[in-house]
Amino acid sequence: MSEALFQFMLAGAVLLQLSAIIEDELTVGTSGKTLAAACLFAAAAMIRPTGVVLPLFASLPLVLMKTSKWQQSICLGLLAFAIPVAAILSWSTRNERVAGVNSLNSDSVQVLFYYNAAGVLAYADHLPFRTASTELAHEIGWRGDPLETPASFNQLMMRKSFQVFERNPFATVIVTVRGLLLVATVPDRNELNEMIGTNGGGPLGLPPSSNITERVERTLNSPMLASLVLIQVMLILTIWAGVFRALLHTDWTCKIEVSCILIPLMVAFAMLACAASPNAHARFRVPAMPFLAMLAGIGWLGQRRVCATMIDRHVRTEDQRPQIDII
Fold this sequence. Notes:
mainly alpha; 70% helix; globular; disordered C terminus
C-alpha cells in the first residue's frame, strides 16, 4: 500500500510547486509553498526508495519565478534541496545501523542483484531468468534461498551487479528500455486474475519482461480477464495519446505554460525510469499516474490560456497605476 501514500505525497508536492510557479513571483506565500513541497518530497522519499531522485525537483519553483533578490532565492533553493536530502541521509543511516544496508531500502541490493543484474545476464547469455539468478548467487558463494541472503553479502552483491552491467552495456540498455516500456504500458493482470478468480494468471515468480508470449496465451484462457486487460490497455493508450497531444499543443514561448507541462512530465518519467528494470510491474506505475492523467486531461480537454491570462493581468495592473503627464 506504500505506492498510494507515496503518490499522495508526491502529487501534493508538485501541485504546490505549480501553484507557486503560476504566481510567477517570489513572495512569502510562494516561498512557503515551495518549502512545504520540499517537506512532502522528504516524506515521500522516506516511504519509497524511488524518492531518491526527488531532491532534484525541490528547488525548481525558485529557479523559475521572477525575483529581484537573488541571494534570498538562492538561500531558499538550497534549503528546499536540503530538506529531502536530510531525510534521505537520515533514513539511509538508520537502515545501515539496523539492517546493514546504507540505502533507502534494505532490499534494494537484493533487487539490484537478483533481478536487475540477473535480467541483464539472462538477456546477454540467452539464459532462463531463474538460471541466471541462480548462477549469480553461486558466484558469490550463496546456495540458499535468495530471499534469505545475509546482509554480509550486500557489498559483494552490489559489486557483482555493477560488474555485470559493465561487461554487458548493450544488454543493460536493452533490458532497461524494455523495462521502461513495460512499466509505462503493461496492464495489471495477476492481481486482477486472483481478485475475480479466473484462470489466466502466471507465470509467477518471473519478471514481466520475460515469457511475454506465454503471458498473453494464459490471459486468453479467460475471456473475462482478457476483456478487462484489453480495457486497461485502451485506457493506458488513451492517457499516453493525451500526453502527446498536450506536448504538441504547448506554447513553448510561454515559460509558465512550459513549466506546468514539463515538471509533471519530468516527475512522471523519473518515477517510471526508477522502476525500469527486469522487475518492472504494473503497480510501479502508480506514482506517475497523477501526472500522466493531468497531462492527458490537458491534451484532450484543456484550453491553455496561461500566458494570455498573465499578460491580461499585467496590462490591468499597468492601467491601474496613476498616469503623470509630463509637460
